[in-house]
Amino acid sequence: MRVLLIEDDLTLQRGLAQVLADSGHQAVVAGDGIHADTLLAAEPFDLVVLDLGLPGMDGIEVLERLRQRRQTLPVLILSARDRTLDRVRGLDRGADDYMTKPFELSEFEARVRALLRRGQGATLKIGRLEWFWDRREVAVDGAMLTLSRHEINLLEALLQTPGRVIAKNTLANLLGDDSAAAGDNMVEVYVHRLRRKLADTGIEIGTVRGIGYRLIPVQGDD
Ligand code: CA
Fold first, then answer.
1. CA 110–ligand 1 middle distance (angstroms)
2. Is 222 among the domain residues?
3. pTM beyond 0.85
4. SS3 assignment, position 113
5. Do 80 and 150 share a structural domain?
6. Cα 66 to ligand 1 centre (Å)
7. What CATH number does residue 132 fall under?
8. Cα torsion 72, 54, 112, 98: sign
9. Which range of residues forms the domain containing residue 79?
10. Higher model confidence: residue 86 or residue 222?
């Protein structure tokens, strides 16, 4: 997925761009509102991450101009402005979600995933597998597959960007609790379980040594 990250704080910009890249997304960055507005008018994106306090043009104006052009892509506002009034104003002007700085990166990743899911249509079909974004369920040839919560989290992350590698530590974050990521062993255990359940579906989880995992079509042996 192609994400436009509009943020003038360079440390935060770099950190969030890295998080997006680790999740398999292509992050394009803009550090001021006018540059962001020009990019949005000219290029397709799947999601906008928008800071409000920006040089050149305020984030709210960038958002208003986007919606005036009838561009419907999801917008996630990141702002230090934490009054209810600011949140309401952002959502009223057409944002889909609003996060107050500072925030946990794992929450940022989760909200990005949720917003991208909305833009993707109801289902995704790969091989003989069909994934239902809203219900977070999976079927093989029309029959529902029973997966645990952790298996669902892993599979959903891999399905967001089929073919692209997802870092092992990104997957570990999905399996951990609120305070800590899971260990590498736990990722390996759940990938192993998921692989067994995905046998004969036409897709498999490939290992990219030292980096992570990705969904790939099974090389035909039939
Ligand atoms: Ca700012």
1. 22
2. no
3. no
4. helix
5. no
6. 19
7. 1.10.10.10
8. negative
9. 2-119
10. 86
